[in-house]
Specification:
Layout: H1 4-16, H2 27-39, E1 44-48, H3 54-62, E2 66-71, H4 74-84, E3 90-94, H5 97-108, E4 113-118, H6 128-138, E5 141-147, H7 163-166, H8 171-174, E6 184-187, E7 201-204, H9 208-214, E8 220-223
Parallel strand pairs: 1-2, 1-4, 2-3, 4-5
Antiparallel strand pairs: 5-7, 6-8
Helix pairs in contact: 1-4, 5-6
This protein binds S-adenosylmethionine.
Length: about 230
């Protein structure tokens, strides 16, 4: 049984237009997502951190395959579930994104092509490192987009800093998990030309051929992590 307060909050937010944004209301970021969809034969999308379902709704409006989105908090899960119920392809999971991701990867199998949008944070446990390790271990074909990530060479993009105990979303925090031979990618669009909240992001793949193909996208700029 959903909590009635959460149900009421959904209707209040809907009436007042406060149901969150599509990829931080960033048109440049939306173009990157659409470019990835056009360039790769994506079989499924995974999103860590549903929140109000704003980005999930954007994904579902552009992609008819399976979408899995995971949210830790019951309140956000209920609100997003109500918002997203018209999209039959969206599977709303309540739980830790790392555990949900592990199950989704097992169910999809190594050969399925996944787009992974890693956006679960805000609390003491930052799942990014565990999520990256899981994708590296269980998937052969994938693109990963990490939200709220520090963009090297463009300080106008915002990023999340949870302090030395928890972590900072920047390359140093994940460097040991990356293949030094493969580039990673930042938005090619300068932050001054981006719209919305201007949050930074990082894209990567652990697969060499997919990583090279990301380099063909005009919306991305390559960066050597080493
Ligand atoms: C930045 S918001 C996500 C925004 C959403 N992806 C969007 O684009 O609209 C972060 C969300 O992650 C959730 N979260 C934090 N840690 C989590 C975890 N370990 N597992 C699942 N969700 C988590 C938070 O409750 C919050 O709703």
């Amino acid at each position: 049984m959903p909590n009635l307060k959460h149900v009421a909050e959904y209707y209040a937010r809907r009436l007042t237009g406060k149901l969150g944004h599509h990829l931080n209301a960033q048109e440049g970021r939306q173009r990157i997502f659409r470019d990835v969809l056009a360039a790769f034969p994506v079989d499924y999308i995974f999103e860590g951190g549903t929140n109000l379902g704003g980005s999930t709704e954007y994904f579902a409006s552009h992609f008819e395959g399976e979408i899995h989105t995971a949210e830790l908090m019951q309140r956000f899960h209920t609100i997003a579930s109500m918002r997203l119920r018209r999209f039959r392809q969206v599977h709303r999971h309540r739980g830790n994104s790392t555990e949900v991701l592990s199950r989704v990867l097992d169910a999809q199998g190594r050969a399925a092509f996944g787009f992974h949008y890693l956006d679960a944070h805000w609390y003491d446990y930052l799942p990014i490192r565990d999520e990256l390790a899981l994708i590296r271990e269980k998937s052969d074909r994938h693109v990963i987009m990490i939200d709220d990530f520090r963009v090297e060479g463009d300080a106008g993009y915002g990023y999340d800093d949870y302090g030395p105990e928890t972590g900072v979303l920047e390359l140093g925090y994940i460097a040991d998990l990356l293949d030094p031979e493969l580039p990673v990618y930042f938005p090619a669009l300068p932050s001054a030309q981006e719209t919305g909240f201007r949050r930074g992001c990082l894209l990567l793949s652990f697969d060499a051929a997919i990583s090279r193909a990301l380099g063909e996208l005009a919306t991305l700029r390559a960066h050597r992590p080493g």
